[in-house]
Write a structure and sequence with these properties.
- This protein is mostly helical.
- Among the domains are: 31 residues; 55 residues, Arc Repressor Mutant, subunit A.
- It is built from 6 helices and 5 strands, in the order αααββαβααββ.
- The strands form 2 sheets. It has a 3-stranded antiparallel sheet. The chain has a two-stranded antiparallel sheet with strand order 1-2.
- The longest helix has 25 residues.
- The mean pLDDT is 81.
């Protein structure tokens, strides 16, 4: 028996698991922690860049009362509906005021209605309760 044969027989379970993980490229807990840290840093960088530029996807975004926090698309649509008062506002007028595409606007209105932040007065006309 030579030294190589002894090493093959005496391989520990930890070493076998490590080789298995390396061979099949399975990430370890340490790899995942590194990845999560990197994602956190990237998100923080993106957030600071968006706040500094005041733009999202090339469009200027109005600011909320709290400085440094950008207004979301849902907040903008809700603000337009709120400005219309008790008479309500239709989809075409909201589209003109916000500049959003039909599909995006329909999704936002659906979400706001589901959350109870707006209500439907009549077909295609919405108000803030």
């Amino acid at each position: 028996m030579d030294k190589a044969d002894k090493e093959k027989r005496n391989m520990s379970l930890d070493r076998m698991v490590k080789l298995f993980l390396q061979y099949y490229r399975i990430p370890t807990k340490k790899d995942l922690e590194k990845l999560m840290d990197r994602i956190d840093r990237l998100e923080k960088t993106i957030k600071t860049k968006v706040v500094e530029a005041g733009k999202i996807r090339g469009r200027s975004v109005r600011k909320k009362e709290d400085p440094g926090v950008g207004m979301t698309a849902s907040d903008l649509v809700e603000e337009v509906i709120r400005a219309s008062g008790d008479t309500g506002i239709g989809i075409p007028a909201i589209k003109d005021a916000t500049g959003f595409e039909d599909k995006k606007l329909r999704n936002i209105i659906f979400r706001l209605n589901k959350l109870g932040r707006i209500t439907r007065k009549s077909r295609g006309v919405y108000i803030v309760p």
